[in-house]
Amino acid sequence: MYTVADIYSILHASTKILVHPALEIFDLAYDTRKIRRGGQSLFFALKSIRDGHAFIGEAYRKGVRAFVLSQKDIDVSLYPEGNFIWVNNVLLALQQLAAYHRTQFKKPVIGITGSNGKTVVKEWLTQLLQDDRRVYQSPKSYNSQLGVALALWNLSDEYDCAIIEAGISQPGEMVALEAMTRPEIGVFTNIGAAHASGFASKQDKIVEKLKLFTHSKDLLFPSRYGIASMLPEGLRVFSFGTEPMDEVQVLRIEDYGRTATQIQVAHAQEIATFSIPFRDKASVENALICITVLLFFGYSLDAIASKLTKLKPLDMRLQLKKGKNGCSVIDDTYSNDLASLQIALDFLFQQQQHQKRTLILSDMDGLDDKLRQKLLALLQRQELDRIVLVGKGTHFMRDQLHTTVLLFDSTEALLLGLKDIPFQQESILIKGSRAYHLEEVSRVLVSKSHETVLEINLNALEHNLQVYRGMLPSGVKMMAMVKAFSYGSGSYEVANLLQFNKLDYLTVAFADEGVELRQGGITLPIMVLSPDEQVFETLLTNELEPEIYSFRILHAFITFLDRRQIKDFPIHIKIDTGMHRLGFMPEEMDALIQVLRVTEAVRPKSVFSHLVASGSRDHDDFTRQQLDTFARCAALLESELDCNLIKHIANTSAIVHWPEAYLDMVRLGIGLYGVDMDRTLDVEQVSTLKTTITQIKELPAGETVGYDRKGVLHRASRIATVKIGYADGYSRRFGQGVGQMSINGQLVQTVGSICMDMCMLDVTDIVAYEEDEVVVFPDLMKAAADIGTIPYELLVNISSRVKRVYFYG
């Protein structure tokens, strides 16, 4: 695509070392963990939570020979074959390169922005347009300052048009996105509460988002926000809304059965009624935006009506599921294009629980010869153990892939042949176009379980990790608490993401939890809290590091190691500074030092304690007392043992409130999983417990619901039975109207007692149908407060029989 010399010229950089100026660059890299073909990658040393300059050596070892840097003092003599370009701002340089590449694309670019619905509208428009033209879309939700640049890099003339989404969270960000994207056609979805905290008012947010269309020719938008007066001169407008002056006038919207909505619109003196296979408000609005775009492009009302019936609900996230025969299944079957395939493959190789990896891939829509060769090149550089190709359009790769290749003409043929493929202890990525319905393959390969599910958003978990990491000075390590099944969120699935993000330590409560992580491919150091003598052998064989909290455990562990002639086994010394749960008391330090001096069996690796009330300002004096006590004990240990220990005492609340407690390492717990007890941080909810309505009954006033007839109905009521009970971890304390759940965004209360496997809800005042989805804890903090507990208890009590489904992207 470009040589290093070309890129130097494009960036107008002042300083360079070009050893091989003719080196061709195809990939942009910023994360060494995702580098696949280093020799053709340009590495941008971005400075964010982590400084990319610290990873130049790792990128070089992976074959990268071209770098964009801002730091002047890099010893480039360590990389004799490297090409180096120095700029003032690395992210800006990446954006400049993307902007230049965008100018080489001469086909129409559609830019989409708004508070919500951007990604759905982009995906739906691609579905609706792809029968008539080859559409490039920015992958997943690549709508940030970095994401838009990476999306634009994949533009090529094989496409007839491109759809790029742009998202912002604060003022000043849209100017850079506009400079890169330069959309000829703009689509404005809506304005809602998303990222509201970054703007002084809704008006300010609208003004900022409209900057994406500064140089656009046409803008499509909902008229109800009154933005027409804010638009640049010369911009042609095409609005939809309920007013007669709207180009697309909405005349009527109403439910049509339990799964559909009818929308009647008027356009160009014609009236048409469309049926869409959705009922929720967000989907209706997104469909209206798509209708408006299609009308703008000149599609007839009849053609649009036919296209809308084919719309499918989108689950736009990679889903990591527990498969049969010890497999892990990554389900990404909602769309298939080169950019999203690369993202899915990156996620596949991020998984460490299995050494063997399989890709099940369908044919792609709109591939010409050039795109087919790009697909082939992408697959040739993956280290896959097996590739299953579905669709005759993929068969050209039969003899060109250096691995086992299985060919099937159709999804039906693959379903029949699955029984003959020995899927066993492997990670399986299923990536398919909508038309191939590979979700049917996923259903066959995934383990069956209880229909209540706990959805784990790995993107949110990764986001929360970066929020807390961003508060720490450089050099402070981080330990993550993954005990209690990662606060209910899972075991190796969560730990694997933390390992991918290069955490320093993990902590579990019991040795068995550590064993499961080791079996799942986790190699990070793992500390085990409060081990007993029965697990010493397990600690040894799985390289798990014990917390030592008493002389009894210390002597027993030393005796165990001496018998096996083991020396210098790492241990972690727990000091009791005020919790009075476990740990050596300060007055026991001298005796502890005497024991540690005379043994070679163990080697203290860290010393730590636990803060009692770091999140309560009422106990600040006690917290300071704990910090002082710990500092004295730690200093004494280091001095008398002549060693440097990792010192850690800060828990999640202390990370927020007590910077002086950071020391050498902090321990991140509940905050990682999206529970901010202070509600002051921009953390995201990680876990969502969902179930479904099994049955709805119409009952007259005076009837009772549930055991012991405690649910007395004082009016004629509609009662929904849902598939969750106290055996799933939904406490009996939520009975009698205490518990609230959400159905289609509307709150309802429990009726009667909570049963073992089910409970009942009063849905009299809302629209609800059997099989509708139910969110069990719409507000986790409120739910905990309603039964007098804390969010921790609700999360860790979710039963292991509740299926965990992991999403990424």
Summary, kept brief:
By secondary structure, the chain is an alpha/beta fold. The chain has five domains: 2-91, 3-Layer(aba) Sandwich (Udp-n-acetylmuramoylalanyl-d-glutamate--2,6- Diaminopimelate Ligase, Chain: A, domain 1), CATH 3.40.1390; 105-308, Mur-like, catalytic domain (UDP-N-acetylmuramoyl-L-alanine:D-glutamate ligase, 3-Layer(aba) Sandwich), CATH 3.40.1190.10; 320-447, Alpha-Beta Complex (Protein-Tyrosine Phosphatase, Chain A), CATH 3.90.190; 455-673, TIM Barrel (Alpha-Beta Barrel); 687-808, Beta Barrel (Lyase, Ornithine Decarboxylase, Chain A, domain 1), CATH 2.40.37.10.
Describe this structure in words.
- This protein has a nine-stranded mixed β-sheet with strand order 9-10-8-11-12-13-14-15-16, sandwiched between helices. Strands 24-25-26-27-28-29-30-31 form an eight-stranded parallel β-barrel, surrounded by four helices. A six-stranded antiparallel beta barrel has the order 32-35-38-37-36-39.
- The longest helix has 22 residues.
- The chain is 29% helix and 24% strand.
- It has 809 residues and is α/β, with parallel strands linked by helices.
- Helix 4 packs across helix 8 and helix 20 packs parallel to helix 21.
- The model has no long low-confidence stretch (mean pLDDT 91).
- The chain has 24 helices and 40 strands.
- Helix 18 links the parallel strand 26 and strand 27.
- Its EC number is 5.1.1.1.
- It holds the Pfam family Ala_racemase_C.
- InterPro entries: Ala_racemase, Ala_racemase/Decarboxylase_C, Ala_racemase_C, Ala_racemase_N, Mur-like_cat_sf, Mur_ligase_C_dom_sf, Mur_ligase_cen, MurCDEF_CellWall_CoF430Synth.
